[in-house]
## 1
Amino acid sequence: MSLSVGTQTLPGKQDSAQAAPGRRRTVSALRGLGLLLGLAALVLVALLSVWVGTKGIPFTATWNALWRPDGSETSIIIHEYRIPRTVLGLLVGMALGLSGALMQALTRNPLADPGLLGVSLGASSGVVVAIAFLGIGSALGYVWFAFLGAALASVLVYVLGSSGRAVATPDRLVVAGAAVTAVLLAFNSAVLLLHPRAFDQFRFWTVGALSGRKTDIVLIVLPFVTIGLILALLLAPSLNALAMGDQMGRALGVDVNRTRVLGAVGVMLLCGAATAAAGPIGFIGLVVPHVARFVAGPDQRWVLAYSMVLAPVLLIGSDVLGRVLGAPGEIQVGIVTAFIGAPLFIALCRRRKLVML
């Protein structure tokens, strides 16, 4: 092994420097391959969601009705019920996965989930008000109240977290979110105890389900999910810098406060739309970002991309599993994701430390 003289580079270091770009290209190729496999899994579970249901339909009949609707009973079931349900599962899954990844990156807390800022409880409070005081009983009617409640809760948390001369740091936002969540939970409990009829309707929504939702709800939440998705992906480079700390982020040219505000808006849009459309569904936003980091590493660009693909795989797959296990009825997807997500999260905790980097 030769030594360097003057500005001449050591042969060993030169070989290492030349090999580094090759290793980076290999890692990127493997990440891209994993993402393609995730997309293939998403297509598979989407097809299963269109095929499997409480009414058994042969696969060939499902395939023909999918591409050539003819007004038959099978065609109506496929196009008016199962396809909107599958598309809604795709949107809700993407929204929950991205909002969970955003929350964990913004707060640098691996245990954060979309409900940490009070978004889920805010949406629930909106539904409670719509049912108990306004007599609204349909999903299409109270979806707007759920979204409004999520937005108001998010704004309240941010105002409390940045009150006085302090800035909205992750710790202050978490504390403010916990306080708002406690108040909203007490409010919901009080209203539902005083209005038993409202409780009868609310308990079906609060389980979390994709059943009974048609194209009109998909069209309502689509713009909000789209804007939140674009916002989350645009914030990915800033989130990478923010993961090294506020001071380092500022040194790298990132506007920390702006990133947190836009990230909170993204979480509100994504989680608010998902909760309004399907009810509160747990563990998706908590577990999937950990799986994404385990597969793709800490780079937020890849974490967000994987979360956007893997979350709907888990959600739609759980929905299909609920139809199979509950036949001739079905088990609501919120129950299935809890049974699947909890053991998966425990396994991830035991396998490695929950760190962001």
## 2
Amino acid sequence: MSASPTLPSQSYRSALVSGRKTLRFTFAPDAAARAVIAQALGLIELPEFIFKGELAPLGRADVVLRAELTALVVQPCSISLAPVRSKLSDKTEVRYQFDYDEPSADELEIPADDCEPLPESIDVAAIGIEALTLALPLYPRARGADFTEAAFAAPGVEPLRSEDLKPFAGLAALADKLKKPEV
């Protein structure tokens, strides 16, 4: 059994940015790396993927990542498994704080901005792949794909249908019958 290929990486040392100049980057994996990413994310194909942005100093020691994702993905339809092409575009911003305090269990509020502790190096490829994952349509649908009722049962047994599972439908009919005076 062979090990699955590892996801691509493109790291920059935080010290190159912290308190200094802005560093611009472009993560545009080649066809082989896109195939590895597609396999990891359950995609049929990943024809285009670019994560482009900057790592900029924020104050004396903090760093902010601002980037834009553009991608063309091919996913299986959630109904028919037919290929579905989607063009994605999204923006990402992450603040890295040098003196980051991890919130305690009592402080379970979600912060207004996305802050993380400043790592020794920032892997823009991993951030780009995460941004791609979050931007993917959850239930892609091919044109003309329609979810119809499927009924299955053992031979000789009548299949259970969705209207059979509505217990109050029979009660409504009974209530109507009780309201009408018998003649």
